[in-house]
Each structure stands twice: as C-alpha cells, then as structure tokens.
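Troubleshooting log. The previous structure file for this entry was overwritten by mistake, so regenerating from the original sequence record. Sequence copied from the archived sheet and checked twice against the printout by T.R.
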Amino acid sequence: MSLLGRIKPIAPPADDAAHRLRRTLGWPHLIALGVGAIVGTGILTLTGAGAALAGPGVILSFLIAGLVCAAAALAYAELATMIPQSGSAYTYSYVAIGERIAWIVGWSLILEYSVVCSTVAVGWSGYFTGFARGLGWEIPQALAAGPDAGGVINLPAVAIIALVAGLLLIGTRESATLNTVLVALKIAALAMFVWLTLPAFSRAHFSPLMPYGFFQTLGPDGTKRGVMAAASIIFFAFYGFDAVSTAAEEAKDPRRDLTIGIVGSMLACVVIYVFVAASAVGALPFQRFAGSAEPLALVLRSLGHDRAAVLFGAVAVVALPTVILAFLYGQTRIFFVMARDGLLPAALGRVSHRSGVPVAVTIGTALVVAVIAALLPLAEIAALANAGTLCAFVAVGVALLVLRRRDPDRPRGFRAPAAPLVGWVAILGCCYLFLSLPTGTQIRFFLWNAIGLALYFLAARRRAEQPR
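Regenerated output below.
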C-alpha cells in the first residue's frame, strides 16, 4: 500500500475462462489495429487546421507531435511486454504508482476513448451524408445531425457504431482481419494522394517555413499560433497506438507482437503523415487549404483531380470506421480490466464462452458512445480527448521510470533505449502540450476528474476492497 493507493502485483492474466480473453491476434493484426486507430479524421482534417496555425511549418509540427508520441510509444512497448495484462496505461499505473492514480488514468481513458469514438462517428456521418447526396439519396437533416447541429438525432453515427460493435461481438480475430483490409484501403488512398500531388510540388511553397514563429504567439484574433501551437492540435492525429497495448491478453506472443504492433504502427504513421503533409504544402500554397474541413480533397480538386477527390471521399466512408473499431475495442478492454479489478461492477468483467468477447461491456460501451454521438454537442468536448490522452501518456512515462528503478531485473520483451530520456520526453512533452490546450478544455478536464474521484471514494474504492 502506498500513499497513492494499493499497488497491483505483476501477474499472469486470470486463469478462469469467464475472465480470460483468448489469444488470437498476431503482429500484423496489431499493426493494423494501431494504424487503423491513428490514420483517420486527423490526417484528413488536421493538415488544414495545422497549416492555418503554422504555415508550411506544419511539417515540423507533425514531426514534433510524432516525436512526443514516439517516446510514449517506446514506453508503452516496454511496459506492455513486461506486464502481460490488458488495460493499457490504467494497468501500468496500477502496477507502478497506485490504485488512485490508476483510477484517474482509467477515468481519463474512458473520456478519451468515448469522445474519440463519438467524434469519428459524427465525422463519418458527415462524409456518408455527402457521399449519399452525390448518389441522389438525400438523408433528412433531422436524422443526419444532433440537436446542436440543427437536427434531432444523428442516425448514421448511431448506425456505424452499432455496426462496429456487432463486428466486435462476432469475435476479436474476425474483426481484426476485416480491419486489416480496410487499413490497407486507407493507406492506398493516401499513397494515391501523394502520387497525384508530386508533379505539382514546388519548394517555393515552403518559404517562409515558419511565418508565425516556432513557439506560441497570439494572432490578431487571440488565437495561439506557431509550430508548437499546431503541434498541440496535430497531436490528435497521432494517438491511437495505445489501443494496441489493450490487446496484451489477446496477442499470441505478447513480447514480440506488442513490440512490433506499437512501435511499428507509430513509425509507419509518422512516415505517412510527414509525406502527406509535405505533399499538400508542396503542391499548393498553404493559404489555399488552411482551415479547410477537407484539405486533402481540396488540394486534389485544385489540381484538377476531381474524380480522385470523389474517390478519396468514398474511401473515407468505407475505411474511417477502423478508427471507431480500434478505440471501441480499446475502451471495452479497459472497462473489462477495471471491472475484473473490482473498480467497476463485476458483471462487466466476464467474457462469452462462445466468442471469448466481453459481451456486456461491449454492448454497454457502444450504447454510451452512440448516445453521445447521436445527441450531444461534440464541438466543445472533442478536445477533451487530447487531455485524456496526455494524462495517460504522462502516467506511462512515470511508470516506465518507476519500474526501471524499482524492478530493474524483471524480464522485458522490449527495453526502451535510453529509458530515462524516453520517459522524460514523454512526460515533459505531454505536459507542455497539455498547457498548450485551450483553457476551457483544461478546466473541463479537471472537472471530469473531480467527478471521477468523487465516484472513486464513494463507490469504486469500497468495491475494490471487497473479496472476489
């Protein structure tokens, strides 16, 4: 017992079939899970938002955000191969720091994954509605948007969440295999974008590289601008690899597969993002697509590739659900482990004998995410996902440093190089990015965790202390 609560021992997963997940995933599935989570609406939309804040320096913003995430990815890879349990940053915090911090991290991850799933579902709904309109099928506004957007309920968003949840209920391996196919489709679309923009590439579009400076400055409208300001927003486009670590109990060979899955998906996405951002800036002056909600399609249309832009939108409709699948999968596994630890109702910590899937928690999570996507205003709460992720990444950096000092000889399938540097880059980089978030987002994040701590002391702590 520490001042921060009980320390969870490092132990193999549960032995009884009712609480044990099945090992059905290889490293190709895990790389696809990570890339599927990372490559989504972020690269499709944030290239324009980042260019508005940093100009051509948005490429540096992608590299900086990627560097911070890479440090966190190395820490995740070591901890995932050292601690053979699902739960991601929640479990690592429980083992290294204590139950109370683990609860805060788990509560923050619930926020992150719920908001991301709902936000992507609403984004997919917009792509689908536009695509359907192009085919002559008009979805009524009342059924295509939530109350905050002038509608009644966002049925396409609910439908895609239900479809993904149903796929997860069929079985983990089956959903992972389909996810791999859809991820390949997304990568092919981005490769097409790079190929089509290369003939128009001009180095003149990169001068000046940082028109708004490197560190944050205030624009005429009071908006934070600069390379670092853009990095704090672009960070949203990188996270998702942490969903791979939630598959620790379903990987066939955790020590090998998790390392390849986490580090491989992160490195692949850094390369993809930098190439795509450089192609967009090189093909068109950044002012032309800065702030656009669909910057990549806009670049293609500006270059005369109208059909390619339509195809790009079609691929988004088909392949964006991989992001929902990865985050919904990850959230159900975090809920599952927290329930198995006693912090959430025990019924959520059981798996189906037939499919090996935690059915109750998958259905419950899908219902919550669907309600958020269908009815609630996401414009203001979407940024909370960033805050929740940054909290988890800081905790993982701390856990890496603590366990290297407290338990240096325990076997690790992967050892992060220069662990002190990796840990501190993850911690300090994420703290800086948190301070770069809008003040309102920071306040809402602390309010969310105040609610979480109240629930912990009122119910979760007592439930966890009961014998199971």
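The first strand starts at residue 217 and ends at 218. Archived copy saved in two places this time.
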